[in-house]
Amino acid sequence: MFLTGGMSASEPFLAAVRSRVYEACHPLATQTLRIESARTGPDAALYGAARLARELVDPVA
């Protein structure tokens, strides 16, 4: 799972999200789950929206 946005670069925020996810989910569902900050940082949503728009316009690309 990749977290995006300004808060995603905060290690305490990532630790809190990891803790809550692992606490709430069955161990088999999370045994290979990685929760990390997206490499694109706060612009990840823009990259995702651009990719979705491109796929909608030209599904072959």
Low-confidence stretches: none
User: Taking strands numbered 1, 2, ... along the chain, how are they ordered across the largest sheet?
Assistant: 1-2
Percentage of β-strand residues: 5-15%
Order of secondary-structure elements: EHHEH
**How many beta-strand runs?**
2
Tell me about the largest β-sheet: 2 strands, parallel
Mean pLDDT reading:
87
Description:
The chain has three helices and two strands; from the N terminus they run βααβα. It has 61 residues and is mainly alpha-helical. The protein has one domain (2-57). It has a two-stranded parallel sheet.
List keywords for this structure.
61 residues, mainly alpha, two-stranded parallel sheet, 3 helices
Could you write a compact summary of the structure shown?
Helices cover 52% and strands 7% of the residues.
Topology of this protein?
Layout: E1 2-3, H1 11-24, H2 27-30, E2 36-37, H3 44-57
